[in-house]
Every structure is written in C-alpha cells, then in structure tokens.
Amino acid sequence: MRKKGFTSAGRQRWHCDRCRAGTVAQRVDLTRMAEFRAFLAWITGRSTAAQAAAGLGVSRRTFARRVAWCWNVRPSIATDGAVCHVVETDGTYAHGWCMLIAVDGGGEPLGWQWCDAESRAAYRRLFGRIPMPDVLVADGGAGCLAAAGDEWPDARVQRCLVFMFNVLWAGVAWCFPLDVQLFFRSVVIFVMI
C-alpha cells in the first residue's frame, strides 16, 4: 500500500499496486475517543441525547447505538503508592446502593467502592487499595471502625466533627428548654473549634 492523495474530507487515501484497490485507513481509536467524549459530555452536561448526537453528526438512535459500549467502562483510580497523612471516608446512598468514598486531606479522591451497606467487608475492600494513612477521619460507623482496625491497625481514627455535632445536638434538642439548648450548642461549637 502506498499513499495516493486525499479524500474530499481531507483523509489520507491508500492504493495497492498489486490489486489496484484503494482504501481509506480507519482510525478506530480516534472514533472511539470522539464517541466517549460525546458520551461524557452528554452524561455530565445539560445537553439532550439528540444534541449530543448532532455533535457527532448522527441521529439520536445511531448515537445511542454507537455509545452503548461506553456504559460498560469501569472507571478506576490508580494509586500512586504515596502515603496520605489524612484520609476521610464516608458513604452515600443512591437508589438502594451505597458508595463508599475515600479522599485525602485536600479532597482528591483515593478510591471508591459500591456496596449494599456500610459494612466491615465493604470498607475492607476500599481500605485494601489505599496505603495506611496517619489519621483516618470517619463518621464512626461500626463497619468503618472495624475495617480500619483490620487493614490499618496503626492508624489513628478521628470522628468527623460534623457528625459528632449532629449526634450531640439530636440527643439534646428535644430534651431541654430552649435556653439550655442554646447554651449547650455554644459549648459544643466552642469545644469543636
């Protein structure tokens, strides 16, 4: 095969001297990257599927067919092996599932784990991929604390102050008169700051 000019779209045309056939090389990697970028823009943006399809120059149904493989991409966070001094973890629930998230002290994600509940096993799977930090900041759930003792026995554990305040406030808010509640709230805030 040798080069033989360009198409009207500007793509390189190739020609075989033996069989006299001509072809245009397909760049599947570039096609897939364009599809994936359009998929991400559609999923994370405000555009409709029809608008995203128009960006690729295809119909909505063709767009759905061409980006169907994108739903099977499993994102992963590569660990660089650097030890973080502080790791914060928490779980959030959506549609009956729980996502455990671990971030470093600056808010950069270190790992995530889908599970059905904030259990010891789920936290162990999450913690097993992250090097042991100096301090783990958590909400104090039993599964998290047990997994931290298993995976990171020498890490210090600190309860998240927001959770502590909410637990203390919920226990006091309905039991005492308003002036006692306000005094207790000011004492708790003073101690936490």
From TrEMBL:
Keywords tagged on the record: Membrane, Transmembrane, Transmembrane helix
Domain of life where this protein originates: Bacteria
Transmembrane segments: 161-184
Keyword check for Transmembrane: yes
Entry keyword Membrane: yes
Protein name, per record: IS3509a transposase
